[in-house]
Amino acid sequence: HRPPRSPPHLHFPRRCPAASPICKAIGATPYIEALADREGVKGFEDGTYRPDAPISRAQFAALVATNYGAVPMVRPAVPFVDVSSTFWAYGAIDQAQRRGFVGGYPDQTYRPNQPMTRVQAFVAVANGLELPAAPASVLGVYGDRAQIPSYGINALAAATQAGLVINHPNPSQLRPQEAMTRAEVAVLIYQGLVALGDAPALAASQAVIQLQTVQGSFPDIQTHWAKDFMQGLLNANLLRGQDDGRFYPDSPMPRAQFAALISSAFNPPPRRSTLQFWDVPASHWAASPIQTAYRAGFLTGFPDGSFAPDNSILRVQVWVALVNGLGLLANQVDTKVLNRFRDRATLPTYALDAVAKATRLGLIITVPDASLLHPNRVASRADVAAAVYQTLALQNRMPALSSPYIVRP
Question: Which of 340, 399, 332 is closest to 140 using CA atoms?
Answer without folding.
Answer: 399
